[in-house]
Amino acid sequence: MTDFTITEDFPRSEIEFDARFSNPGACYQYLFQLKWPDGFVCKRCSCQQYWLSSRNLYICTQCEHQHSLTAGTIMDSSKKPVTYWFKAMWWFTTRKSGISATNLKELLGFGSYGTAWTWLQKLRRCTVRHEREKLSGRVEVDEFFIGGQRSGKRGRGAEGKTIVAVAVER
């Protein structure tokens, strides 16, 4: 399996994403790194030894407490493969104009619109910072592009540029 840095190794393209997260094992390895960056530690007894069950549960060898990589996440109790969740998160975070439930339903081959809609609602709730101060009154919003290879080329056609959105309270 590949070593990676969680915050600095974000795939730059869908091809890169597919190569990295093409199977459940790669997705679970990523979740393991997020949950236990310094290696497994049982939250009940602090033991560092575990065995892996056939249902992807990490079971402490000392107290036999079961740990799931998806517990406490939006993937908790989902019957869909973890690769579907990763793909949905990729599309949700990288599409300039977002993704609709209909698009997600078609892209992942869901049988119902409701499943795709529920997934998007969960993803949207994850992006909200509850401790943030909400803007009120008159709010002005603007966007601009920064960086990239070609200077002088304006707008969305400028490849490699990053969009920055700013909201200001007046």
UniProtKB/TrEMBL annotation:
InterPro entries: Tnp_ISXO2-like, Transposase_Zn_ribbon. Residues 134-170 form the ISXO2-like transposase domain. Residues 26-66 form the Transposase zinc-ribbon domain. Pfam families: DDE_Tnp_IS1595, Zn_ribbon_IS1595. This is Uncharacterized protein. It comes from Desulfosarcina widdelii.
